[in-house]
Every structure is written in structure tokens, then in C-alpha cells.
Amino acid sequence: MDASTAVTSLLSAPVLAFVLGVVAVAVRSDLKVPDALTQTLSIYLLLAIGVKGGVALADTDPASLAVPLLLALGFGLLTPVLAYFALRVLTRLGPVDRGSIAAHYGSTSLVTFTAALVALESAQIAVPGYAATVLTVLEIPGILVGLLLARRHTARHAGWGTTIHEILTGKSILLLAGGLAIGAIVGEAGYAPIEPFFGDPFRGALVLFLLALGIEAAHKFAALRTSTAGLIAFAIGFPLLIGSAAVLAGAAAGLGVGGAAILGVLCASASYIAAPAAVRMSLPDANLAYPLATSLGITFPVNLTIGIPLYTALALTFA
């Protein structure tokens, strides 16, 4: 499949559902997705990705995991540092808010990852079985590094033990890691009876979840009215640059088209599930409006509409 065909196939129902949510807010519709449904969908998506990733991981040669996991760890440590100093150049934000934003951009977005899985599958590009493992690995170091950068400038914070416990026992990590373990233990034979629940319905659940996120993101746009142009430029440009660099690194390391593309997506995405909880507890002085507005209001739709097609095209070209 060539790059143009793959990129064209990425304009999918989940992306359009997100756009519908934004439009609903713009026209002041009374459309809402109940919070209970949104929470249920997020649990379903996390567990489904973990289980399917674990099943694929069971058939993966352990030796093939070393390179992608090392790349993930490297980008997980480097990305928040680059984000922190990029924000110092582009904005007038203080070190605590810069560290808060860096923690969000050093971590990953489950929904961006999920949309990328669906898009790559639609483009008939195979995603390696270790993808969910890389997602889990990338979730943690970026948050910790971002918090460390911010905590140098504040005396008010939770202890490291409390912060790490919050991250590791949070919904995202617990469901992803638990799902990976379940899938790896039961294998293909054990997954077959539950495949009708975690297979085709997965896409429909993603459409509903992105509709809810479109509504939420549209409400976050208001917080950007008081933001600087530099912060908006960061939210657009930084993920595209770091994602493209990750794709090229993955291609050079021999991860293949699917592996390089998904690494780029993960490194370019920004957390708005795991990171806010950790930042809220560890950095009480940080203004969460900045990272939530930029990660959910700008970076997420940019990755959906521009980023995923860009990383896929780069992977098809260089991998």
C-alpha cells in the first residue's frame, strides 16, 4: 500500500465523531454523553487494548522487544525535558506550569493510540504485538521526569512514594498491565471465546468515546483564550516534531512500518487521563487548565487529523 492510499483511509468514523462533538458545542447543542458511559467506555478500551496486546505478545519473540522498549524508554525520558525547555523559550510560564505541561507531553494518550490502531488496521498495516507494552512503558517515565523538573522549584508537593503509587495504581496502568497479563496467560485459545466482545465492538466504542472527547475538548478551548501564542504553537508543533523524530528513529532501528508509525504516534501524543491525576496531587500550585487545554483541545485533534497520517506516511517512506 502506498502512502497516499494509507493516508486517505485515515479519515475514519472515530475522527468524524470527534469533529461532531466539537460542532455540537459550537452550535450550542444540548448533546451530552453521560459521565458514567464515558468512564465505562474508557475502561473497556483500556482492557481491550491490554488483552489483545497480551495475546499478540505471547507469540512475540522476547528478543524482538529489546529495541522498541529501549527506544520507548529513551523517548519517555527525553521528551519531557525537551518540552520543558521548549516552553521556556516559547512562553512566559513559570517552572511549575512548564513541568506540569512537560509531564503531560512526556506521557501518552490512550485514545490517540487507539485511533492509530484502527487507522493502521484500516490501511492494512500490521501493528506489532508489543505496541501495547510500549504504550504502558511510555506512560510512566515522562510523568516522573516532568514532575521532577517542576518540583525543583516548589516546596509543596506529595512525596515520591505517593506519586509513584498514584501513577502505577491509576486506571490506565492497572488496566493496560492487567490486560497484557491476562492476554499473555490465556493466549489465542483463551481469547477466542471473548473475541466477539473485544473484536468488532471495539470500533463502535471508540466512536462513542471520541464523540464525548470532542465535546470535552471544545469546552477546553475557552482556556486557550488567555494563553500565549507560544503555548499554542508548542501544542501544535512540538508533538509533530517529536513524533516525526520517533518514526525516523523507529525506521532506522528496523521496527517496520507499523512499529515505526505507532512509536511516532505514542511519542507525539499527550496524556489527559493519567498525567492530570499525578500532577494534581504532586503539584498543587500548577494550573491544570494549561496542560488540559493544550493536550486535549489542540494536540489531540492535531494528531487525529494531521499527525497520524503524517507518521504513517513517514513510516511508509522510510521504513
Q: How would you explain this protein's 3D organization?
A:
The chain has 319 residues and is an all-alpha fold. It has a single domain (3-318), classed as Up-down Bundle (Na+/H+ antiporter like fold). Helix content is 76%, strand content 0%. The chain contains 16 helices and no strands. It has helices at residues 3-8, 13-26, 35-58, 66-90, 95-106, 110-122, 131-139, 141-151, 160-168, 171-191, 195-198, 201-220, 229-252, 256-268, 274-282, 289-318. Helix 4 (66-90) crosses helix 7 (131-139) and helix 13 runs parallel beside helix 16. The protein is globular. The model is unreliable at 6-11 (pLDDT under 50).
Can you tell me the number of structural domains? 1
Strand elements, count: 0
**Strand portion:** under 5%
Largest sheet: none
Mean pLDDT, all residues: 84
Set out the fold topology.
Blueprint: H1 3-8, H2 13-26, H3 35-58, H4 66-90, H5 95-106, H6 110-122, H7 131-139, H8 141-151, H9 160-168, H10 171-191, H11 195-198, H12 201-220, H13 229-252, H14 256-268, H15 274-282, H16 289-318
Helix pairs in contact: 2-12, 3-10, 3-12, 4-5, 4-7, 4-8, 4-13, 5-8, 5-16, 6-14, 6-16, 7-10, 7-14, 9-15, 12-16, 13-14, 13-16, 14-16
Short précis:
By secondary structure, the protein is mainly α.
What labels describe this entry?
319 residues, mainly alpha, Na+/H+ antiporter like fold, 16 helices, 76% helix, globular
